[in-house]
Amino acid sequence: MTQTPIPRLITTLAVPTIISMMITSVYNMADTFFVGRIGTSATGAVGVVFSLMAVIQAIGFMFGQGSGNYIARSLGGQDFRDASRMSATGFFSALIVGGLITLFGLIFLDPLVRLLGATETILPYARDYARYILLGASYMTASLVLNNQLRFQGSASYAMVGIAAGGILNIALDPLFIFVFRMGIAGAAIATVISQFVSFCILLVGCTRGGNIRIHFRDFTPRWELYREILRGGLPSLWRQGLASVATICLNLAAGPYGDAAIAAMSIVSRVNMFASSALIGFGQGFQPVCGFNYGARLYKRVREGFWFCVRVSVVVLAVLAVAGFIFAPGIIAVFRGEDALVVEIGARALRFQCVAFPLMSWVIINNMLCQTIGKAAKATVLAMARQGLFFLPLILVLPPLFGVLGVQLSQPLSDLATFLLSVQIGFTVLRELKAQEEAEGDAA
Question: Residue 273: which H helix or E strand, with range?
Fold first, then answer.
């Protein structure tokens, strides 16, 4: 971690995490694709319940990123006992919170799906889909904790295998449960929770392999000191994912007056954007363990070198993806719901708008990863809140009443532009602070 050349080290760690993140996004994309064969309202239901899944993921990422960041710094400082306590605390806490989500979600199922933005025609589909997703909430959150903890220990390959196995299984089970067993949208949800459980089991086994920290209940230490560190490192992820859920709800509510086709179209665009963004997030997650280890070892020069390497590579890759998405936007939307011309029309224009701003996200995400990993919690949280919270929520409330469905389509790309401008100021401030630390302490390298 502290000796291997930065480009080779980050690339080695990033490839498995990119695959892991892309396959994670496949869960919902696969459901969107196969459910699209049922109808427009069913497709809209997947988009509605996605905000619930985003909450579940937000909890998992909070405990996973928070504990993982701390573990990386502890291992960098050779404090293995502290790392073990944090590993167990993050894992079992996520299991408990996931169980509470299941309990209260099932009790208040109908009000919940209405709150998520379901129309009267989407409601029956959303109810069937959400019921089974809630049953898997506990191990879904815990899986994300295991995935992040393995990754921060440098075992990205184990994390990739667990996530990949579940994603591939989900693609296979979706048509089986939906069409062969004739379970409709409920079958898609059952396929998802079964696949997530398989991932959970594989990741749990991965914690017993190699030099990874083994999770034992005796190490579970529910003390404020550890939860403070989890919140410190995990709150940005909670805000990012949690606000994504709120943003999706507001998007569904804003698109609702224009019909199920508008909800379905924006749902598809969100899934496509999420799939493309997952590659960037995975690349940034390959940087995080390198950043954490080297920051803990006070090798600040390597931290800055890794940051700039990630920015350069991600800008080029996202620009290529943006051009491809802009050119082939109608065909991409048609893959999911080509039978409905209105869905394709609304979705293609929204996707093209988002492609224009897409390359800007490289700077935003890598900056967020840097701030989160080195303990700049306030700056990381502001960046995490900005895209889907500080900027998107006001825009999605203001623009649709003024411009109709065009306002719905423009809200996200305008939010991305504003987030980029904010992140430029924050990013250069943090880089100057790192440079000052390097000069003050002297780089151990």
Answer: helix 260-296
What pLDDT sits at residue 80? 87
> In this structure, what token pair is assigned to residue 48?
């509605």
Orientation angle between helical segments 40-76 and 6-35, nearest 10 degrees:
160
Q: Give long-range contacts, CB 8 A cutoff, 24+ apart: 78-85.
A: 80/213, 83/213, 84/213, 84/214, 84/216, 84/219, 85/219, 85/221, 85/226
Token couple for 191: 């396929």
- From 370, 298, 273, 275, select the one nearest 10 (Cα to Cα): 370
Domain boundaries, the chain: 6-441
Distances (CA, A) of 406 to 59, 141, 258, 398: 33, 36, 11, 12
pTM (2 d.p.): 0.76
- Mean pLDDT score of the chain, rounded to an integer? 89
Q: How far is CA 393 from CA 7, 15, 111, 345, in A?
A: 37, 33, 22, 24
- The count of C-alpha atoms lying within 13 angstroms of the C-alpha of 322, restricted to the half-sphere facing its C-beta, is 18
**CA–CA distance, 344 with 328 (Å, rounded to integer):** 12
pLDDT tens per residue, range 72-90: 878 877 888 898 999 999 9
Count CB neighbours of 401 within 10 A. 10
Where do we find the tokens 């390198």? 290
Q: What is the pLDDT of residues 136-185, one digit of tens each?
A: 999 999 999 998 898 888 787 787 788 888 888 988 999 999 999 999 99
Nearest CA among 194, 205, 193 for reference residue 159:
205
Angle at 153 between CA 377 and CA 17, to 5 degrees: 80
DSSP codes of every residue in 66-79: HHHHHHHHHHHTT-
d(CA 149, CA 34): 32
pLDDT above 70 for 412? yes
End-to-end Cα spacing for the chain: 12
Nearest-angstrom CA–CA distance, 332 and 80:
48
